[in-house]
Amino acid sequence: MKILVHGAGGHMGRIICGMAEEGRFGAELAAKVSPELESDPANAVFTTLDEFDGAADVVVDFSNHAGTEALLAYCVKRNLPVVIATTGQTEAEKEMITKAAEKIPVFFAANMSVGIAVLADIARKAAAAFPEADIEIIERHHNRKLDVPSGTALILANAIRDVRENAVFNIGRPENGKRTQEEIGIHSLRYGNEVGTHEIIISNGNETITLKHEAENRALFAEGALKAAAFLEGKEPGLYNMKDMMA
Ligand SMILES: NC(=O)c1ccc[n+]([C@@H]2O[C@H](COP(=O)([O-])OP(=O)(O)OC[C@H]3O[C@@H](n4cnc5c(N)ncnc54)[C@H](O)[C@@H]3O)[C@@H](O)[C@H]2O)c1
Fold it and tell me: Which CATH architecture best describes the domain 114-214?
């Protein structure tokens, strides 16, 4: 499976490239593409996607949501499946992703960790068992992270909303006043080199459940993305996520 890594010069991109160079999960590096890399076609390194027209089976994207349109145009033009691990897309960019998935297989997951998929499932069950409980989500990440709240916090909040139709996300609790029962509070901490911790507190006043997932290192996201790339092989056009891969 030949992989084109988009965002190859970033933290995640470098990890993915390292794994592909070692042949992990059946991967082979087709090309590295990233704005900060100087094009060097002899070594399959390119500044922009359009410079590369060599053989590839799948694109793995850990870049910036601002590049969504160009990324999708390239993948559709070349009929290449794409794993989008980048987070922070605007609504318009999410629509572009849905549209592209009518033409090519697209795996889109704000968190490539199997543990987070399990956590979302447990959170959904716990929220259903305690319909009156207050729910708060706290997420912690390194000080370079751009999007707030994290895409993963939104995955968890949306999993809870599956069983609480009236849920309202209160991001950062910016105003004075008592919380309402419909609220899911979402709080973002940014410091140092924190890889990513998500905590969900569910409390009805008599008892409190705390669910917590801690990412120990970033390699777990890269592994998940390579597994997702393998999952896309031979798939029909469509929008796929962690739930599909774990089914
Ligand atoms: N889905 C997951 O499990 C998961 C895990 C970790 C990180 N992420 C996301 O992956 C993305 C990258 O994370 P990172 O820690 O490697 O960030 P980073 O800042 O280290 O790297 C970002 C890379 O994207 C490139 N880039 C910036 N703007 C671009 C554009 N318009 N077009 C193309 N490339 C562009 C940068 O040059 C850089 O190479 C972020 O959105 C992050 O939230 C997702």
Answer: 2-Layer Sandwich (3.30)
